[in-house]
Amino acid sequence: MKKSHIIGILMIIAAGLTITMAVGNTSQYVNFSKAAESPDREFHIVGQWVKDKGLIYNPEKDPNYFAFYLKDDHSEVRKVVLHNNKPQDFEKSEKIVVVGKITSVDFEASSILMKCPSKYADEQVKAQQASVLR
Question: Cα(57)–Cα(73) distance, rounded to whole angstroms?
Answer without folding.
Answer: 25
